[in-house]
Request: fold
Amino acid sequence: YTNWLTALSKDTSMPTIEIGKMIADDFVAECYRSCGDQKTTLSVVDLAELSETVTDDLKKFSRSTTELIKDGDYKVVSDARSNTREFATSSKIDQIDLYSFAKNIGTKESEELAESILSAVKYNKTSDNMPNSYGISIYFPYRKSSKVNSAIQNYDAIGMDSSYGACIKEFAGLELSGQAASGGDSLNPLSLLLGSSSGASNSSSMEGLDSILSLVSAFSGGSSSSNMLGSLTGLLTGRSMTDEDCAAYIEKNQFDNANLNWVKADDGYYRVKLTSDQWSMVHSVDLNVFVDDGSGFIDMGLDNSCTFDKEGNLLAGNEGTWLAVGDQPVAYYHTDTAEDGDSYTISGYIPALLNGEKVKLIVAFTDQDPYGSILGAEIDYDLDVTETKARGLVDIADGDRIDFLADYYSYDGTFLDSYKIGQQVTVNGKLVISDKYLDDDYIALYKFTDIYNQSHWTNAVPKQR
Reply:
């Protein structure tokens, strides 16, 4: 932050926009210098223009998007949300790029909003691995719909038009209803690990309009028996979409996890085969691995490592390897993939303790560094205390002590605590990422996430080595 001060001292009449550009350029350049793979973005916004133009266009956009949901196009909005640039993905705070989201929606009102955003953002600087970041972010629920009510309260407190709050409430209400119709928090991979033989036996999806309507009505009335969803039923009050319309939409747009079975083909490979309609209900597929240590299950995390055949079927491609630091397999969670032509950045994190403090070790794989590197540590604040997202990364230096962490479950499926994997590491030089074979007591599954952000798992992947 010294260049702009030096320039301003030499020319005190320097235009504000030029100062802003210099700050943004220097900030991104310094982040690149200190950590080349770190994602950075900084913009200069004309707040006066934003107030005069974006405010009204956001109101029109909110109303038209609400109408999309009411008219049976929830999937259009959900797909747009899923494909939009998201910030702080590991913290699940649901902050997305507003321009990118508006362009993905594709209505006349969303195009007008996108145009006014670009006009109000006078300068936008990003690192190469941060595409689709245009200068203004906003909260839009998807990962943690429980925050909708508090967001609406904040919007009301600052005098924001109520149309946007109504929009996110409409979206979250249908999302949560879709989750409830699929079993809500009753769906988890441990039911498969603890004796179920197939994804079909783990199916809790409601069948038939009457069944779905009964559940949605109970849910919206606050009498849901689901521990996870029952506490969120307040989101469904005051919606403009009726329970009947909601149930009718879910019946026609529901992912059937009964098809998540491995079928052995003539070539000897196992596949999961879905229809094109069912694939259209899927937003993401991730590999989920557990290790049985003799007393319970260690959750090794989620990786976007998936292989598909030429017909688009998911192949059972897991060979028993998992990400490791040095020789120690560790829990790893994929968070984001950014692609721009031949360039790509795959981001994720490793839960750990750094000198006794809870952190996420940030990992990046790029076209320039395909084997991956640990960029640094991000302080992992307790979400029950604060939702603050740590800015910047903590450097990892020689002599630092690292304990790798993973979630641990008992054989009855009860979450016990975070679990230390392996021995404590004292840093001495660069931490090297590799792939290591797990012992034969590992179990691999694939996690499918549908348009309601509901999770579904396959049965255990047949071992092929």
